[in-house]
Amino acid sequence: MTEARRRRIEEVLRRRQPDLTVLLENVHKPHNLSAILRSCDAVGVLEAHAVNPTGGVPTFNETSGGSHKWVYLRVHPDIQTAIGHLREKGFRIYATALREDAQDFREVDYTQPTAILLGAEKWGVSEEALALADSAIQVPMFGMVQSLNVSVAAAVILFEAQRQRLKAGLYEGPRLDPELYQRVLEDWLRK
Ligand code: SAM
């Protein structure tokens, strides 16, 4: 491990946002999952969450660019457990959904603890998850095609969160408490 590599790792860790995350409901295609984790890495998500249709460990491919090494992924057995876990930690859960009563995604305050719930390619976020979420948001669509690819929707929303957090100074100093910072640092230095 060179000094430059260690400095780079610390620089990235200092910008990690423990209170910004995604919850992926049955987003199982490796290229979508990989692309989402890559955007998570870029905006500083420390840990992403997933519920998998098969119950197995999700798989990644080269689309991740190696980002899955740097963004933890916690897999939950079902959506109630996942949302319960996030709510207990103080997250507000925004379900992405293409419906009339969904707010424009730019109206949300992402400087607060935020989890963005994204759904499966074919069916979207389930009715059960929508009922458990705090509110619904959408990226307005003016084209012929009804929806975005899930990884694109994730990126658009995450980068709005990044814009707001930059403005609020949330990337200026370490956001992890010292004990967690040290634990993650030791883990990353071993990679
Ligand atoms: N037929 C599905 C539906 O009605 O929800 C489309 C699913 S879409 C291909 C897959 C996921 O991408 C959605 O569950 C949502 O998480 C996200 N998504 C796609 N377009 C979106 C948009 N315009 N606004 C917010 N999320 C979107």
From TrEMBL:
Keywords: Methyltransferase, RNA-binding, S-adenosyl-L-methionine, Transferase, tRNA processing, tRNA-binding. GO terms for molecular function: tRNA (guanine(18)-2'-O)-methyltransferase activity; tRNA binding. It catalyses: guanosine(18) in tRNA + S-adenosyl-L-methionine = 2'-O-methylguanosine(18) in tRNA + S-adenosyl-L-homocysteine + H(+). Its EC number is 2.1.1.34. GO terms for biological process: tRNA guanine ribose methylation. Pfam families: SpoU_methylas_C, SpoU_methylase. Transmembrane segments: none annotated. Residues 163-185 form the RNA methyltransferase SpoU/TrmH type C-terminal domain. Residues 20-159 form the tRNA/rRNA methyltransferase SpoU type domain. S-adenosyl-L-methionine binds at residues 96, 119-123, 139, 148. Catalyzes the 2'-O methylation of guanosine at position 18 in tRNA. Belongs to the class IV-like SAM-binding methyltransferase superfamily. RNA methyltransferase TrmH family. NCBIfam families: PRK11081.1. This is tRNA (guanosine(18)-2'-O)-methyltransferase.
